[in-house]
Specification:
Layout (H helix, E strand, L loop, with lengths): L2 E3 L2 E3 L2 H8 L9 E2 L4 H9 L3 E5 L7 H5 L12 H4 L23 H15 L1 H21 L3 E5 L18 H4 L4 E6 L12 E6 L5 H4 L9 E5 L6 E2 L2 E5 L15 E5 L12 E2 L1
Parallel strand pairs: 4-5, 5-6, 6-7, 7-8, 8-11, 8-12, 10-11
Antiparallel strand pairs: 1-2, 3-4, 9-10
Helix pairs in contact: 5-6
Length: 271
């Protein structure tokens, strides 16, 4: 499939990557200042510094590479119907030059995802190195380090080891946090990892888990946030991204629909 980037046509995505990037290095983590919501969070909680990783969601990496087997980094994307209104195409990530089929942000996410899927050991070694450098910068700047690895993915990091340890064990001084659609994740034994479960009414069985899970629950709303949802107090989740600082008493983290989510009718976005 022909790809167009900066006005130049390429035979397919592999051809584009070969020509444009050749042996250029891949950066996995993005500083919080490059993300408007996280940057705003760092202004509120000045003692923290945040890094975030954005991959291409669901199976889009393999789809763009025209592969027969489509591997997903979001196992519940189809069940929760969150792949179409995904925040992957919001903010600057949705801005394409006229006639272009991609942009530099989407290509960076693609390259990270392919490294994760195709060369896990190299990916993990690079991730550990970048986190180590981030922690050292935080120490130098007298900041507490926080990392969100699933900016636009839903990988179960608690199951992935590098050199015999998980990221949580390797870097106990880091506060890790993520949103997840996977209701079966077990992380109670990981003191430095915080999860917020992401709700959807696209699947009836999935939506019934609302009352059963102990996590705080993120709900995307169309329009203004309600004060209460299904008996739980709603807090404004757009004020800060640092979910690990939310109330320990179970609450709904209300998020306003953005990008493609504004027109979602699957049940992922609640009217």
């Amino acid at each position: 499939m022909i790809e167009i980037y900066k006005g130049v046509k390429y035979r397919n995505m592999q051809h584009l990557l070969d020509v444009v990037y050749e042996d250029k290095p891949i950066t996995l983590l993005t500083a919080g200042q490059a993300n408007s919501k996280i940057s705003k969070s760092e202004e509120v909680f000045k003692d923290y510094a945040v890094s975030i990783q954005h991959l291409l969601p669901h199976h889009y990496a393999d789809l763009l590479m025209e592969r027969k087997t489509l591997r997903t980094v979001c196992p519940f994307a189809t069940t929760a119907q969150c792949f179409k209104p995904c925040l992957n195409l919001s903010g600057r990530a949705k801005i394409f030059r006229k006639e272009d089929t991609t942009n530099s942000i989407q290509l960076a996410r693609l390259r990270r995802t392919l490294l994760y899927l195709d060369n896990r050991e190299e990916y993990m070694a690079k991730l550990f190195k970048e986190i180590d450098l981030f922690v050292k910068r935080c120490i130098k700047n007298n900041k507490k380090p926080a990392v969100r690895l699933n900016g636009t993915s839903d990988i179960q990091w608690e199951t992935i080891e590098h050199e015999g340890v998980t990221v949580f064990e390797k870097f106990p001084q880091v506060q890790w946090y993520d949103y997840t659609k996977i209701p079966t994740r077990k992380i109670s034994h990981i003191p430095n990892y915080h999860l917020t479960w992401s709700y959807s009414e696209a699947n009836q069985k999935y939506s019934k888990l609302f009352q059963k899970l102990a996590y705080n629950i993120a709900v995307v709303f169309k329009g203004d946030l309600p004060a209460v949802f299904k008996g739980l107090r709603v807090i404004d989740g757009d004020k800060t991204d640092m979910r690990f600082l939310d109330s320990n008493k179970k609450v709904v983290v209300g998020l306003k629909a953005k990008g493609k989510a504004k027109t979602d009718t699957s049940g992922f976005v609640i009217n």
